[in-house]
Specification:
The chain is mainly α and about 100 residues long. The protein has a domain at about 30-100: Winged helix-like DNA-binding domain superfamily/Winged helix DNA-binding domain (Arc Repressor Mutant, subunit A, Orthogonal Bundle), CATH 1.10.10. Helices cover about 50% and strands about 0% of the residues. It contains five helices and no strands. The protein is globular.
């Protein structure tokens, strides 16, 4: 006789939305995000191919890191025909910003 496995009951959309809203700004931080932010500010360049070669990461991971850097204010948002901009002027500003995330 065949046994049927029961699947756990899925959570409602309202339950998952409230969890998403409560997550802190830096909860999905990649371990390389700070190093990449320092590299971007130091070199004043955020060419994706250069960063991928320098840090040995793939395009999907780099895109997640860029989204994180947008949220914390290192890079501007990417618009349709506009390039991103580096919003941090120097290394000192970056270190102040990164410190403020851990308070």
């Amino acid at each position: 006789m065949a046994e049927f496995k029961t699947t756990p009951k899925s959570k409602s959309k309202a339950e998952t939305d409230t969890k998403r809203e409560k997550m802190p700004l830096y909860s999905d931080k990649d371990p390389l995000a700070e190093d990449i932010a320092r590299w971007i500010v130091k070199n004043r360049d955020f060419n994706k191919e250069k960063i991928q070669r320098q840090f040995y990461i793939g395009p999907h991971r780099l895109e997640r890191i860029f989204k994180y850097l947008e949220r914390i204010g290192v890079l501007s948002k990417e618009y349709y025909l506009k390039e991103r901009k580096i919003l941090i002027r120097n290394n000192w500003e970056l270190e102040q910003l990164l410190e403020s995330l851990y308070i």
